[in-house]
Amino acid sequence: MRSLVVVLAVSAVILAAGAAAAYAFNPQVGFTASADDEGNVIVDVNGAWPAELTYRVMENTERPDRICVFLDEKYPGLQSYRAQKKSLTTFEEMMSRRGYDNIEFVELAGLKQILGDTSSAPGTGLMMTGGALPADVTQETIRTWTESGGTLYWSGPDIGRFLDDGEDTKDTGSGMFGTAVNYTPDDPYLVTKATDISEEMGFAGERARYGLAFDYPGSRVLGLYDDYSSLSVLPMGAGRLYLFGTNFDEYDVEKAASIADIVAAGITEDTVIKDRGELHKGYWNQTFNIGKVDPGSSVYITSGSPVSAKGRCFFL
What H or E segment, with its residue span, contains residue 255? Predict the structure, then answer.
């Protein structure tokens, strides 16, 4: 009889531990959000196990319909091709977990095609993480494409300062923003002040060795900062530019996850988080009414830890 009691007790502990783990991260959980006829946001959550979800109701969000990532082994720029490939495929995975799968990797020919078609710039994102432009792509071409409605995600020194001719990378001494962009390649330039958006979205970048000045006219800091920021967004004509203050880190999965949250949620220079809350699902499908929202709002929902999170952004 004693052995039976021990077995039951151990089984109970295992079941309890399993339930706790499922509550912390449940990859099988699914959820949708929509607005009813009265403007209430209805969130339907399904799955066999308990789950905790976080929702954020936001205004003025926008994200590209597709994101093209420049990755060319012949033109790696200031960061190795291997390191970029690792960090960018991790970012791609994090975006997929957040319901965004419209990511395409392009080499130089594809990059030129994208930049040359300014009519298709609206709705298109371009991510460049090498910190240098291919030598026959000018900063004026980048500016024209962005101002035509493109969304550029740039990591590294000032745009156009460094040029890669396929053999060597040359420092021209100046770029698109001049001294407004920091340049301390031998100093990580750690920053610690947080903005409301960085605290809410958990942006993990703390380096601003190539950061934009925190008070650059028209820009908004989305990351950490002091004189320079680890991430800023700047409207440019009909488009916008996201400037990361350091390289993407091939080993920093948490940073890749937080970048994915910023991108997948469509955080812009004008985004306002109107409401935030937690939803607790038990062992059954549940429907939650999280209240009224204004037309044009969005709801970003995540479940799980930042690194393992499953997320979706619903544009209402």
Answer: helix 253-265
Give the pLDDT confidence score for residue 6 in this predicted structure: 31
In the CATH scheme, what is the code of domain 66-265?
3.40.50
CATH number of 28-59+271-315: 2.60.40.10
* CA gap 230, 209 in Å, rounded: 8
Predicted confidence at residue 11, as pLDDT, reads 31
Does 66-265 match 28-59+271-315 at the fold level?
Answer: no
Taking phi over 0 as left and psi of -120 to 50 as alpha, with beta for the rest, 47 belongs to left
163 neighbors 136 (Cβ within 8 angstroms): no
Q: How far apart are CA 312 and CA 54, in angstroms?
A: 11
Q: Where are the beta strands (DSSP E) in the chain?
A: 30-35, 40-46, 51-59, 66-70, 103-106, 124-128, 133-134, 151-155, 162-164, 169-171, 193-194, 220-221, 224-225, 231-236, 239-244, 272-281, 286-292, 298-303, 310-315
Domain spans, the chain: 28-59+271-315, 66-265
Average pLDDT, whole number, for the chain? 89
| pTM flag (> 0.85) | yes
Q: What 3-state class would DSSP assign to 285?
A: coil
